[in-house]
Amino acid sequence: MHREHIRNFSIIAHIDHGKTTLSDRLLHRTGTISDRDMEDQLLDSMDLERERGITIKAHPVTMEYKAPDGQVYELNLIDTPGHVDFSYEVSRSLSACEGALLIVDAAQGVEAQTVANVHLAMKLNLEIIPVINKIDLPHANVPQVRQQLEDILAIPGETAIAASAKEGIGIDDILEAIVRRIPPPKPTGAPSLQALCFDSYYDTYRGVVTHIRVFNGEVRPGMAVKLLHTGNHYEVKEVGSFNPKPYARPELMTGETGYVVANIKSPSEVKMGDTFTEVRNPSPALAGFQEIHPMVFSGIYPINTTDYEPLKTNLGKLQLNDSAFVYQPETSVALGFGFRCGFLGLLHLEIVQERLRREYDMDIIATYPSVIYRVHLTDGTVKEVDNPAFLPETTYIDRIEEPMVKVFLICPNSHIGDMMALVSEKRGNIDHTETLDAHRVMLTGLVPLGEILIDFHDRIKSITRGYGSMDYEYADYQAADMVKLDMLVNGEPVDAFSCIVHRDKAEGRGRALAAKLKEVIPRQQYQVAIQAAIGGKVVARETVSALRKDVTAKCYGGDITRKRKLLEKQKEGKKRMKAIGQVNIPQEAFIQVLKA
Prior knowledge:
Elongation Factor Tu (Ef-tu), domain 3; Rossmann fold; alpha+beta; Alpha-Beta Plaits; 29 strands; 14 helices; eight-stranded antiparallel sheet; six-stranded mixed sheet
């Protein structure tokens, strides 16, 4: 198709504002999907995506749209995730487009993720078409949302299209706006093929299938191409597009989006953001989006030790379809052989664990999530630590720096005090407050990443009765008084329960862990001490009381010295047992504590 008739666009929005429903409507209206094949959440192919109502992977699809003036246009849509953890998917998708549909819920207005995604799109100079969705809801307030678009995002309110994806209202206006407002793709002027790899997945029979956007030249089967990052050469076997299932095409021209199959055996050969070019006449690399780095680390171990090899294989398969997920082998005294895995955030961690359990039928246990700390040693070297086991002795540490994130919190006016209290409880501080409208404010501040890992999002939702939203972006490292908290059972440290925490919070955390361990450790013939310690200083303690055998049961009547002699004998025995006894913590105890 001629370049002037091609439009590449993405859909961006806060989570649950109706992106996937709108993409379903666009597919239906352009005739890409027949009535018979139509189903809800068509582009969300994973069970998890459908169940939770969230998009996890970006999905490209090519549609043919016949405009009222009789012209036929090729519309390439990339549906993007809305959750903060998957913002790397959004940045990859936007870098392959010229425009973006910005969807805002008519009832909820502009949310934290909306602001973040608009900034991403503006950075890439994309044409933004605002759409006010869900206007059919009884409590929709379209004029207020138009005002918010102007005040918060500096987008003219009158350019927004009122629509309802569920009812099919305004879909034709959206299609017309895409054709009219989004510019056609322009060639870069490079001497030959330039195509950006923005995603890939692994096919058992065809190897790595790479999703590309052609910026210059054309790509067809039989061409000799190379990836600029690795320098490897390949022969193109097949090219095509998605509608939404893949179909082969004779070639992909400048401005078109689709896939390439080129005998790529290993997914590690394709770097996201890399450039495909011709072998004989190479073009310079395209400016790809930033390389993504994992922010949260957790150990994943098989519950049954014989599952180690299958777990290794399945983690490899998962990584093929999720380039942001990383893992490496590690061992633990308590849990045996497992893997140290890196994730983008807590939802990402949850999704990966759930996929391992469902898609690969693995019984796994995950350790407490941690972040990467920068440890400055006394000899001037800097060490990055993501596992408490690798933290050096305190005598060698000059200072420890923890990663900080810039958080954007949107909440109703009535809850500002509660939100500020929550942020200060998490050792953060609010440095900027902005009034969005008569009912809501946006708070901006810095919070340590380690503090928002576990329950921060849930706490925001419960404090604001569901009306609050948050987004965060990586800021920088900042020095903090971090210590390693060890859990000792009968004087022996248990590495699976160790963690790096701030000194002020170490005692509370130690008490909570000790209390939980007291519930799950089975009673022995002698007292078992559970202690939380920082270095040599014990900050919390619980005691599992001894099982007591009644040695005086056979005595009836007679002298009290007889009973006393038996009790003293028992006491000596317990003392000896305690000196040589070992407490074996059952696997179930680990699972229960780590789940909590």
